[in-house]
Amino acid sequence: MEGRLLMLKEDGCVPSSFYPARIDMTEVKIQLRPATDVDLDVINRVIDAAIMSWDLPARVKRLSLASYHYNEFDLQHYDILVAVQDDRIVGVVAWDKQAHPLPHQQQALFVHGLYVHPDHQHQGIGSRLFERAETAMHENKLDGLLVKAQKAAVGFYQARGMRKLAVTNSDREFAHRYWKPVKSD
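-> structure tokens emitted (185 positions)
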């Protein structure tokens, strides 16, 4: 997105118009594959780089890094895919292997995290990872996709058709929860 001036919305979020809904991927060669325990160190470095680019105080970012890291235990409980470009991991998406229960007997694919290294953002990598999560939602015959987004990623998820869920209890609920139901044809 070279040459584009980024104007934050009044609430500090990046507007969804900044994120194109579809990017021509013919020039960007990305391979998506399941993560292995050998990938964990690189995955966590990608996550660190992504988090350090968020608009948060440096101390908050530094103190929270470890809580976003994945380990061998997570490989058992999440489906984790990596995006590989030129033999380097540049992005990662993880979702719960078990359906996430919602009100009204609905079941969701809960995306635990989606991260793209800042040097590789705005190239369609996040879109490809998101599309793979949507495919998993359909394959598992779930009612929709649920994400707890960081403020900086709100526009990304809105551009992909996700809508914000109302916060009914600010003490217990994440501020930026987004939902995308399966489309009824």
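DSSP finds five helices and eight strands in the chain.
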